[in-house]
Write a structure and sequence with these properties.
With about 70 residues, the protein is an all-alpha fold. It has four helices and no strands.
Length: about 70
């Protein structure tokens, strides 16, 4: 991680206050940043739920197959 942080240009941390001031001064930019943040959070959560649903279906199928196998062997 320190190697990655070393690659950030020195001007970015120094300009952080300036960037924040520009966002505060421009409500359209603030709305765009909030919209993008909310959209990416929704897409992230949708992806997690999609994977969870796949895991539930797969687990259910394995469970049914195990019970069918158990009762057919017995």
């Amino acid at each position: 991680m320190p190697h990655l942080l070393a690659q950030i240009p020195i001007t970015v941390p120094e300009r952080a206050g300036e960037i924040v001031d520009q966002v505060k001064a421009n409500p359209t930019l603030l709305a765009i940043l909030i919209g993008v943040g909310v959209l990416t959070a929704v897409v992230f959560m949708w992806g997690i739920m999609k994977q969870a649903i796949k895991a539930v279906i797969f687990g259910g199928l394995l469970s049914v197959a195990a019970w069918i196998w158990y009762f057919n062997v017995r």
